[in-house]
Amino acid sequence: MSTTPSPVPSTREAVIIGGNRIPFSRAGKKYVRTSNQDMFTAALEGLVARFGLQGERLGEVVGGAVLKHSKNFNLIRESVLGSSLSPTTPAYDVQQACATGLEAAIAVTNKIKLGQIESAIAGGTDTVSDAPIVVSDRLRAALLDANHAKTTGAKLKALAAIRPKDLAPVSPSTGEPRTHLSMGEHQAITTAKWGISREAQDEIAFNSHQNLARAWESGFFDDLVTPFRGLTRDDNLRPDTSLEKLAKLKPAFGSSLDTAATMTAGNSTPLTDGASAVLFASREWAEERDLPVLAKFVDAETAAVDFVHGHEGLLMAPAAAVPRLLARHGLTLEDIDFFEIHEAFASTVLTTLAAWEDEEYCRTELGLDGAFGKIDRSKLNVNGSSLAAGHPFAATGGRIIATAAKLVAAKAAETGQPARALISVCAAGGLGAVALVESA
Amino acid sequence: MADNYTKFVNGGLGKKLSKQLGLPRPAILRRYAPDAPLTVGPVLVVSDDASAGDADALAKALVAWDVDVRRSGDDSADIRWGGVVLVGTAAESPEAVSEAVLALGGTLRKLAGNGRVVVVSRAPEAGDSPTLAATRAGFEGFTRSVGKELRGGATANGVQLTGGAAVDSASALGTLRFFLSAKSAYVDGQVLPVGPSDAQADVDWARPLAGKVAVVTGSARGIGAAIAGTLARDGAKVLVVDVPAAGESLAAVANKIKGTALQLDVTAPDAGTKILEATKHLGGIDILVHNAGILRDKLLANMKPAQWDAVIAVNLASQLRINEQLLAAGVEGLRIVSLASTSGIAGNKGQTNYAYSKSGVIGHTAATAPLVAALGGTANAVAPGFIETEMTRSIPVGTRVVARHVVPSLQQGGLPIDVAEAIAFLSSPVASGVNGQVLRVCGQSMVGK
């Protein structure tokens, strides 16, 4: 199963200049009736303003949304057209569930490294508040039949097939199509399998809120976030939450399992609206414009697991992707200064870490000689993550990349040594994307 | 643009009514447009005998600006002067100026709406004889009085040469041009001292700030946004700065003017350093406009520490700290323009904190001027009077009407663009001879000391 990693091909560098996002808002609050396009355009506009990119033709803008209406088939291009960028900037949509934003970044940085483009914006947006409502399959079939029918009689006949129960709309769900389990129920199985305690999960959630609140107070987000619709900070953030308060919450997932349910609304991410965008370029493009270079987007790896047959947990793909990525660069967990592990659930972070510490798992599942290793927890999500900020699916990648880039830049400036951040994002469908960011 | 009352009295019924009732009849002020002529009609240059040479030099400069210049009066009935320039730079006794002054007087009934009177004189200097000092000082009160007599949006201002500045030096001409132009629409009754300068007289008047980098604090909205837009219009690359919470409108301003946004609280201890960092990729900093300001009005008897301290921190202490950091960094040729206020000069009930801060701005401008001059720069202040903004719309109607229509000679409030034009002028290369001054943009609301 183990293969010798192929050497990293030598290409030029893709650098991170900066990022921008709008404050994330819990579903149904500030951004009700705000579309994905509105939000992504706002994220772009803030980025354009921060770096004076008005009228600039960028190489490409790439991004996407997980919950997307079919009318938004060209969501990112439409957003570019509504922005102050040059209308001659090409764009396209991507979608890889919660890894959409990170996958967009991988796509554009690869093009930059290959010399196909000089500059790009990658990002994503998602709204649960303005999610498309779908009609039932039976109603849809009847309407399509009527549309295709040639005579009035045939049209009426097709429409006559509609029954009252067909009229009920189908709400968007984050359930897995093949297992019909929600993401939370899937993760509850993984959590139980690894025996992750409620206390350990609540501690991750508590730290996320504490760290994000401190980052906001210290002005860390002053050049990463632009207010939108009157919201100036992530409104899911609870600076005053405590381990005691978190311990009082009732379990939300895993109640049907044999073991005690440990996952609550406090240690799971809420449904969130938001958008983010990150500016990437070749070093030459950045230097020509005297733009600051925060970090290099070094490399990335994606992975997938077989969760359908219960062999592996739905959100465990990053556990496989990270060892492969680091091996390609001859690095170990010890070489990483910042771990940015997306907190889909507190237990996602913990099951991933537990897997890397488990000799048996690393041997049989990851093809390693022994345990992958243990991370220094003080390097984990130091400025908070999705549990506190919220998680507008496709926007999370951009949030994390910009934060990681700023962290390594500051650390390198402080120590005079290169600093590295590892980004890990799990996604529905048993997918995972991870990336390595290094100070410039 | 104009307020409702001004629009009303300029309409058919309103015009009649206001005339019969003796109500203030503010004119619609002419404002700068890129393709419009400098003045609304021909410009007459008059002088006393001794100053005739200087008057000729000025007339020559005006010709170069495509102005229809006359050196003698015109008796035709339909003449409407766009401007009259009175030159008294070489006058040596009060008696000697009478002929020129009366010649000016003879033209005032024929001054066009939005016409301009500019008095060019020399400032009294140490060592002047009492007679010479009196001759020169007299022009100041004279200019202000002429301003109060003018109607129809016309203004009177003065260029007061200091330190032996030549009448046709770049700064003297630049100041004269500003006063003659529509850019000084709401500047009235001002006598601005202008010293020698090494500025180039050869100016692209459409883009006088081309190649410059300007920083405007508090520019997410109102006067700050107008300043940023005007500096960009004049060719500057602008870094707009405002508190992170105002980031949404700040980004909109930046994108509208092709500028760059910096979300920064000016009261941060390292605000100056942050501004320097942010301007690095724009090519450095040439112009700094301290516009950020807040109001926390309260009678002093009821003033809470937080209300006093916040106003001082934002309006005054931040400017001092940022200036110190920029000077320490050795920024050369820096043009600093700070927003003062007529409240800082005259005082205002409920505004002890604000007035202290704005009066403080005037104080530090005078003290900063020689420090920046050593590095080839200038520091000046602009003191707006009643300006139509969201902020002044919240003033109770009675106070607002008096401040707007009764106090100023121009009988109306100014617009944010009027403040912005004055700042753009003081930031421009030709204004290098103006240093340590306070220019009021108040429509001659002559309140204060």
Structural features, described:
- The complex is a heterodimer of chains A (440) and B (449).
- Chain A is an alpha+beta fold and 440 residues long.
- Chain A has a domain at 183-220 and 298-439: Thiolase/Chalcone synthase (Peroxisomal Thiolase, Chain A, domain 1, 3-Layer(aba) Sandwich).
- Chain A contains 14 helices and twelve strands.
- In chain A, strands 1, 2, 3, 4, 5, 8, 9, 10, 11 and 12 form a ten-stranded mixed beta sheet that branches.
- In chain A, helix 1 crosses helix 2, helix 4 (137-148) runs antiparallel to helix 5 and helix 7 packs across helix 11.
- The longest helix of chain A is centred in the middle third of the chain and has 20 residues, at 198-217.
- The radius of gyration of chain A is 22 Å and the shape is globular.
- The relative contact order of chain A is 0.20.
- Chain B folds into two domains: 40-194, 3-Layer(aba) Sandwich (Rossmann fold); 213-441, 3-Layer(aba) Sandwich (Rossmann fold).
- Chain B has 449 residues and is α/β, with parallel strands linked by helices.
- The mean pLDDT of chain B is 93.
- The two termini of chain B are 31 Å apart.
- In chain B, strand 5 (155-161), helix 6 (170-180) and strand 6 (191-194) form a beta-alpha-beta unit.
- In chain B, strands 9-8-7-10-11-12-13 form a seven-stranded parallel beta sheet, with helices on both faces.
- Chain B is built from 15 helices and 13 strands.
- The interface between A and B is medium-sized, with 25 and 24 residues.
